[in-house]
Amino acid sequence: MVSPDTIRTVIGVIGNGTALVLVLSPVPTFYRIWKKKTVEQYSAVPYLATLLNCMMWVLYGFPAVHPHSMLVITINGTGMVIELTYIALFLAYSVGAARRRVLIILAAEVAFVAAVAALVLNLAHTHDRRSMVVGILGVLFGIGMYAAPLSVMKMVIQTKSVEYMPLFLSLASLVNGICWTAYALIKFDLYITIPNGLGVMFAIGQVVLYAIYYKSTQQILEARKRKADHIPMNEVVVDGKNANTAGSGAANGHY
């Protein structure tokens, strides 16, 4: 018979894979930034928020805080490296106040996590107390990260279009949330259960919205395509003249 520890490990490995997919999802955005050499109107806030969340969970999985949590460390450690890469690209292609703001927030996050680590390791003398303090902070930051899609869901309802809410990412979020919720429930871990349970709820909401607004999205996209393909005749240019002028000339025997 397969032991609960083995099942938990397998689920955790799957969760690492789905979480990696989510962390890598902004790659096309940063490829565009790298190609254009500018951050345009993109915000660094989501990446800074995810970095803070990853740092907090790496601390949570640290053996001195919460033993036997290596899978928590591996995915969040990987997430830290990836998010730092995104932020480095953002800093490389931003200027002035935007760059300074990112640097200040980044420095504040690192200082905050370092301070939490120092205080927890020195003032809390048991694993339970250390896990509780870091876990509560992890839950707060995790809820903030998982709640981010609510703004996208609001836009979907307002526009009746899922164009900017890819189904693949919604499904990946759902599978990821289910994996980590199951991982937390096998050996009950309240601090991992809460944010990932909420993540499952938000992801189900996205999938439901996708099912509701898929047809209307296709209609909107088709209408947009027809509009783009339709060029009014009075705007067509023929040899430096618009169609109306050319037609008049032809009618009068002039070319």
UniProtKB/TrEMBL annotation:
<keyword id="KW-1003">Cell membrane</keyword>
<dbReference type="GO" id="GO:0005886">
    <property type="term" value="C:plasma membrane"/>
</dbReference>
<feature type="transmembrane region" description="Helical">
    <location>
        <begin position="6"/>
        <end position="24"/>
    </location>
</feature>
<comment type="similarity">
    <text>Belongs to the SWEET sugar transporter family.</text>
</comment>
<dbReference type="Pfam" id="PF03083">
    <property type="entry name" value="MtN3_slv"/>
</dbReference>
<dbReference type="GO" id="GO:0051119">
    <property type="term" value="F:sugar transmembrane transporter activity"/>
</dbReference>
<feature type="transmembrane region" description="Helical">
    <location>
        <begin position="164"/>
        <end position="186"/>
    </location>
</feature>
<protein>
    <recommendedName>
        <fullName>Bidirectional sugar transporter SWEET</fullName>
    </recommendedName>
</protein>
<comment type="subunit">
    <text>Forms homooligomers and/or heterooligomers.</text>
</comment>
<keyword id="KW-1133">Transmembrane helix</keyword>
<feature type="transmembrane region" description="Helical">
    <location>
        <begin position="102"/>
        <end position="125"/>
    </location>
</feature>
<keyword id="KW-0762">Sugar transport</keyword>
<feature type="transmembrane region" description="Helical">
    <location>
        <begin position="71"/>
        <end position="95"/>
    </location>
</feature>
<feature type="transmembrane region" description="Helical">
    <location>
        <begin position="131"/>
        <end position="152"/>
    </location>
</feature>
<keyword id="KW-0677">Repeat</keyword>
<keyword id="KW-0812">Transmembrane</keyword>
<dbReference type="InterPro" id="IPR004316">
    <property type="entry name" value="SWEET_rpt"/>
</dbReference>
<dbReference type="InterPro" id="IPR047664">
    <property type="entry name" value="SWEET"/>
</dbReference>
<comment type="function">
    <text>Mediates both low-affinity uptake and efflux of sugar across the membrane.</text>
</comment>
<feature type="transmembrane region" description="Helical">
    <location>
        <begin position="192"/>
        <end position="214"/>
    </location>
</feature>
<feature type="transmembrane region" description="Helical">
    <location>
        <begin position="45"/>
        <end position="65"/>
    </location>
</feature>
<keyword id="KW-0472">Membrane</keyword>
<keyword id="KW-0813">Transport</keyword>
